[in-house]
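Researcher: Next sequence.
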Amino acid sequence: IVAGDGSVLVGSADSWFYGIGPNGKLRWKLKTGYEIDSAGVIGAYDRRLHTSPITVGSADEHLYHLRSGRRQRRVIWAYKAPKISTSGQLVDWWEGNAEIGFGGTIYAGNTDGAAYAFNPNGTVRWRFVAGNSVWTVPAFARDGTSYWGSLDRNVYALDSRGKEVWSFPTLGFVISSPALGNDGTLYIASFDSRLYALDSKTGALKWTFPTTDHVYSSPALAEDAHGNTTAIYFASTDGYIYAVSPGGKLIWKYFVGDVIRSSPVLGGPRRGGRHRILYVGAGNGALYALDAVTGRRRWSYDTTSRNPVLHDRNDLNASPALGTRGVYIGSEDGHVYYVPYDYCLHRRDARCNAKPGEDFPANATRVLPVTAGGNTALSGLRAPVSSTAITVGRLLVRKSGQTEDAAMLGVPSPESLVHANPPFPFTVELSGDGHYVFLRPTGFLRPSTNYSVRVSGLYKSGGVHVVTGGVGGTGGGAFDDTIRFRTVPRRGRLPLSVGRRRVTALNLRRLAIPEPSFVPSVNQIGFDSYDFLVGTIAKTPPGPGGKGTVLLWVVGAKETARGRHVIDPKRSFAFALRGRYRGNEVISSAANVDLTFSFGAVPVKLVEFRGQLTPRLHMLPGNFLYAEVMCADVPVYGPELLAVGLCNQRGKLVATGTYVTSGYGRKGRANRRPHGLRLRSLTLNRPGTDQDGSADATLLLGGHTRYPISKHVAAILLTDAATGDVVSVDYKADTTERRDRHGNLVGVHLTIPSGTSLPARVRAYVITDVFPLASRVL
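Model: Next structure:
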């Protein structure tokens, strides 16, 4: 939000809402209880409150009404969303942007599936329950009708009392907010890749306009002097910005080459020009200013950070806000950027590009490398990569200046498409839409070595597009390209250790999973909300070549208002990572782990964290996250994932991304032996084919020692005593803790489901927080 005095108001996934002055300096901030993934709205000056109030939602379940300016009593009111539990969602986060309608009514949508209208005093005027999350901002008609979209795939018209007037079904989630033309045409886009034009009175379809990937962006309308719509502007995750006529015909499109979730904003003409300017952010970190009439680039500004850790975290998924003198936009890297209007036309800055055309050749068939953060490396991988890195290739087919929706064919198998030199063992998977190939080394690559990975085969193109894949394509051709890179030299030692009183622990957070693009479009805040504390449970000494193994334990954590990371017993995370290391390089993995999403727990067949750890426990840039999910196992949405083409020919949804680590605080206690706490007993009952087994540990507290269950967690981890392999059970769902009458944690019980195969000799670790309190061979 840009206020009238030029101040900027913005929320962040760090859970804070910020008030920033026109000079970019912080004026004030407010801590909420969880991430903020929506934009707020500022109202007119209220004489009674002596402020222009701001309304913004948070994932802590509260919608906040705040005083602007430098005031101590910041919160005017806060509304806590009630539990509705619509089909497909377990949380009630405020992820829909807030908006103000006629008469000062405040509108906002909630992840739990409801659209709300509030009186300015915070009382609910009405609530409409849809079939799934409501993330859109409503459009309003003069008669009080409001128009919304929902993840239940419908568009809704609600009267002034919140009663349904009509609904219109699409084939995908509706996250794009609607725009209403003066002639009564409602424009809204869907994850089924289409822009819809509807009759706002009846909901009747007028026309649709197709793109080649799902649409997250909301449309903007251009009007003539009489208020008639002359163009509809929107963007798609296919990398194009579109201008469409009121009749549904393409006027122009501009290819940025990366995912676009940002919604375009239409500004006025600049000096020396007659045409209005369209501003939009992109997943490549660039803010674009396009001539709204011709679609030619006026300028673009690259916000990509020079900080090596943040360099690959540059998505501009936020939408631009226009001030009196420039454009503001928020970035994935945690910064708000301000670019004066036409700065790039008057300054010599390497970040600026004033070339009118696109940055891609008119004709090309390439397989381009993609970084862990999801950026397409047009010039190849120039910097050396980790010997743990995954190679991601993106098929790009351009013909006569147009980008085709081309999909690689895994014929006779995905592995047949890839040839590496020098050779190394690997697995290969394709993305569901065939746009990406994922080459995963099963071990470490040689250090200081030049590699070439040839990717060749056949592709198909064309067809009817449904969310993420073309169906029935008749076009196609061949591709043959080589990705080249050099691995980094071998460095240092793995800075993880196990001591009698303390183990090394690190914070693992800020997960970003850009591939496939559909995943962050529906769960970006979910990944950013993951905050893990990882403790070292066991480590073998390095052998030949500096190689060894490591066992890690992962639990949920949270950040306090003072910035400390502490155990969060409410977080639904508890799993082991079995790792291999060489020097400071590590590949740690877990199989059959349930990760919690807003709609439920997703069984992940394989998750890996790869990278190089510095002595301060920071992962060096280029670290990879890799995951495989069997689509049929996903609750609620599994059949839909298969239907819309998110799953490859093996039924897998394959995802890659990156993450951030840092050392656990020196004053933290979670990685230390608890004072006065010891193991009293540990037993194992093996499961049968039709009878559950169990492992049970009793803890003994000495003297006046306190170990409150409200602040700590305990677990029993089972491994093969001979190999170190982890026994696969759900260590969160199958664990129960015991407390004494004072609330102290005094025992832990692990249920081992019937049919679970246990090794002949089991090593059981009793873990308090992330410290291995004791281990026994049973």
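Model: Residues 677-777 form a domain with the Immunoglobulin-like fold (CATH 2.60.40). The longest strand covers residues 547-559.
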